[in-house]
Amino acid sequence: MAGASSVYMHLKSRVSLCNATAAVTSSPSSSSAEAQIGNRVQLPEKTRNSRVLVLGGTGRVGGSTAIALSKLCPDLQILVGGRNREKGANMVATLGGNSEFSEVNIDNVKSLEAALKDVDLVVHAAGPFQQAEKCTVLEAALQTKTAYVDVCDDTAYSLRAKSFNSRALAANVPAITTGGIYPGVSNELVRAARSESKGKPERLRFYYYTAGTGGAGPTILATSFLLLGEEVVAFNKGEKIKLKPYSGMLTIDFGKGIGKKDVYLLNLPEVRSTHEVLGVPTVSARFGTSPFFWNWGMAAMTSLLPAELLRDRSKVQQMVDLFDPVVRRVDSIAGERVSMRVDLECSDGRNTVGIFSHKRLSVSVGNATAAFVLAILEGSTKPGVWFPEETEGIAIEARELLLKRAAQGTFNFVMNKPSWMVETNPKELGLGIYV
What we know:
Blueprint: E1 51-55, H1 60-72, E2 77-82, H2 85-95, E3 99-103, H3 109-115, E4 121-124, H4 136-143, E5 147-150, H5 155-162, H6 165-171, E6 174-176, H7 185-192, E7 201-211, H8 218-227, E8 232-236, E9 239-243, E10 250-253, E11 260-265, H9 269-278, E12 282-290, H10 292-304, H11 307-310, H12 313-334, E13 338-346, E14 351-358, H13 361-377, E15 384-386, H14 399-406, E16 412-418
Parallel strand pairs: 1-2, 1-4, 2-3, 4-5, 5-6, 6-15, 7-12
Antiparallel strand pairs: 7-13, 8-9, 10-11, 11-12, 13-14, 14-16
Helix pairs in contact: 1-13, 7-14, 8-12, 13-14
Protein name: Saccharopine dehydrogenase NADP binding domain-containing protein
Pfam family, one: Sacchrp_dh_NADP
InterPro entries: NAD(P)-bd_dom_sf, Sacchrp_dh_NADP-bd
């Protein structure tokens, strides 16, 4: 969920949620702006040589973001933020001469503010975000007037970040929370799933699949365990409902290269943000992994372990340390394919589907996060703290380019397709609740 680290697509705000949009694929465009995709991006003069600090830059998510940025914009000065100098040196060697290591402790305000001195934008990829009590990085960014992007995949953290909106406005700082692959690009797929009619959005369902841990290692494993301790919030016809985590299993067809996979309810921030920001009355999110026995293990943990234990970061870290060697061995066999499917149903009966699949989560999440960073550096984001689906976060005219940048390397990327083109058979959860 890279923030999954853990491969982030919206609907309504200021544009009719169900207006006509042609199906979009990952084939190249002839326009000059889109011709830059996959090649070097020419940033505006004032941001061309920006200093970008990537916190968690020695990890899989932060490291892949730094690599994607350095390839797209070699003129950017990339600071790899972390605690381990040896890992930092290795990443700097990978990035080349226009980078350096910055030793940072994200739990220490003074350390953060010192690291943010003379930095133009900070990427917060140092998860997990679950059970974090403060938005220390965001607060430091506002204090030092530094633009901000995070790959948060936690509902409570994202709402806490949004509470700093007035401070960001006062400081004239643009900030995006939940700006990775999912959530992030997933929210963008929603906006792209528009139809010809003026029907209103009625039901939105997010489905995610990642093979093993997606190559993201301990961070995504910790994220997954912590999410098992959170009651799932979904919305059914405008009413908030609470459900058991890793329940409500559905078998979903993710299309070519992935096929049918079992997915389970999880408490993810895009459910609440798309409900509240975009006004979708029925919203839910599900996630699944492979091999299949990992899903069984997750369901068993939810049933057998106390929720209090699964919400304790220190105890969860102990479990991660215990399971990590086994998970890494299985990952080497399972690979790290990732897929997102977004289903939108409108009041006039039109159903649309978006699918986004990539062979490597660690690469795809870097591309997705870099796409949000570039949008800010290109001036798309207004001061304030925004979710990806808010037009103040990403201007309407910048969204198609963001999606194309994020979709580099995908083997299946389609938007606004009718639902019958991807076979599914969703089931009711019971008691008339259909999320």
